[in-house]
TrEMBL record:
Membrane-protein topology: Multi-pass membrane protein
Subcellular localization, as worded in the UniProt entry: Cell membrane; Membrane
Organism: Actinomadura luzonensis
Protein name listed in UniProt: NADH-quinone oxidoreductase subunit H
Family: Belongs to the complex I subunit 1 family.
Assigned EC number: 7.1.1.-
Length: 432
């Protein structure tokens, strides 16, 4: 039985606020994200430093808290350099396109249920829509145009390749991410974020739909271009990727803001769709933990823990190869997601409609058996390919070992006195 609190907002509660309340909520959201960027940069640098037995920022302010402020002031006051060959309009517009959709995507994230804000009962969420999650996906896709335009307008081969990489990466992982949300939509029966949080009153979807949650976690790194999937900025082969021609000025600061906001949005969506949103990890009958301003604390704790996990992965894993990135998206995440969606639909059909119980059970069994058969076949073929590559490498190594020209360079054998008709004579000591 689902416990629905009296303070749970619905779609009908949105659009009724006075204009000044909407402006206040928009300013609160803007301040939260701007301060989150400042402290997020400091927190990431500090956490990675401690994981690597370093101190991290510790000079500017107490515990280095003002280091991000100093970096922001430095980038804002540095000379703004324009390379000669760039398309100036798109060159300036690209960082803006990266930032604005990231702000808009966070507007659908619910921070708390109904609260008393200056005497007005209002949901602590800027806006909610019947297709709120699709709006978030659309904003994430639009922000990629900023990356592509940044690479194209720079008129640099490295920047252009970085922009193309980002476009291909987003196409791959946007599909898998959208499919990971389908199971949530099936169980919640809605695309509204506030309604999805309400549907998790008894069980969080991270537990109930754990395959969807794990797939989203992988897609989250690919979508936000964070290590191990930060291929658009591959320093080893692309210098700096799409931002190669952006100097350390205000434009570079906007690009960094867009990337951090994208990470924040991914964390906020993970909390909202899979981790219960603002709901406390306590029984729903404890109303004090789910009403008023207390849910803001629970949301913030989950948000920080999710962001910490992203930082921890960055400090722990190396960057993958580009072919590995694309293979994971197209060959693993999307097929597994499709099979999982069919299974979820079958189980959901059994729960809702008991008349079709046998059909649902049979369909679920067929899907599970088919998925296992495909996985076993794929694993067998992959193992055979590995063995074939290993045998080929061993044969090539054996062939090179038996040839006198090791690696293409003539090396005279040490155990023979003659080589190619030339007799080796000892050179008396003391001669030049």
């Amino acid at each position: 039985m689902t416990h629905v609190l009296a303070a749970d907002p619905t779609l009908a509660d949105f659009g009724k606020d006075p204009l000044w309340i909407t402006i206040i909520k928009a300013v609160m959201l803007f301040l939260f994200l701007m301060l989150g960027i400042l402290f997020g940069v400091w927190y990431e640098r500090k956490l990675i430093s401690r994981m690597q037995h370093r101190y991290g920022p510790n000079r500017a302010g107490k515990f280095g808290l003002l280091q991000s402020v100093a970096d922001g002031l430095k980038m804002g006051l540095k000379e703004d350099i324009f390379p000669r060959t760039v398309d100036k309009v798109l060159y300036l517009l690209a960082p803006v396109i990266m930032v604005i959709p990231a702000f808009l995507a966070f507007s659908i994230v619910p921070f708390a249920p109904m609260v008393n804000l200056f005497g007005v009962q209002t949901p602590l969420q800027l806006v909610d829509l019947p297709v709120a999650v699709l709006f978030m996906l659309a904003m994430g896709a639009v922000s990629v145009y900023g990356v592509v335009l940044a690479g194209w307008s720079s008129r640099s081969p490295y920047a252009l390749l970085g922009g193309l990489r980002s476009a291909a990466q987003v196409v791959s992982y946007e599909i898998a991410m959208g499919l990971s949300f389908v199971a949530v939509f099936i169980f919640a029966g809605t695309l509204s974020t506030s309604e999805i949080v309400k549907a998790q009153a008894d069980t969080w979807y991270a537990v109930l739909l754990i395959p969807s949650f794990l797939i989203y976690v992988v897609c989250m790194f690919g979508e936000a271009a964070r290590i191990p999937f930060d291929l658009p900025e591959g320093e080893g082969e692309l210098v700096g990727g799409f931002q190669t021609e952006y100097s350390s000025s205000l434009k570079f600061a906007l690009i960094m803001m867009g990337e951090y906001l994208h990470t924040f949005t991914a964390s906020g969506i993970a909390v909202t769709l899979f981790l219960g949103g603002w709901r406390a990890p306590l029984p729903a009958s404890w109303e004090w933990a789910h009403t008023g301003w207390m849910p803001v604390l629970w949301f913030f704790i989950k948000f920080v823990l999710t962001f910490s996990f992203i930082v921890w992965v960055r400090a722990s894993l190396p960057r993958v190869r580009y072919d590995q990135l694309m293979s994971l998206g197209w060959k693993v995440l999307i097929p597994v997601n499709l099979a999982w969606i069919l299974l979820v639909a079958a189980v959901r059909n059994v729960v809702v409609n008991e008349d079709n119980r046998m059909i649902g059970v049979a369909l679920g069994a067929v899907i599970v058996v088919g998925a296992l058969a495909i996985w076993m076949r794929f694993d067998t073929v992959n193992q055979r390919r590995k063995e074939a590559r290993k045998a080929e490498a061993e044969a090539e190594f054996e062939q090179l070992s038996n040839e006198p020209a090791a690696g293409g360079f003539p090396v005279p054998p040490l155990d023979l006195p003659h080589y190619h008709g030339v007799q080796h004579k000892e050179i008396p000591s003391g001669t030049n």
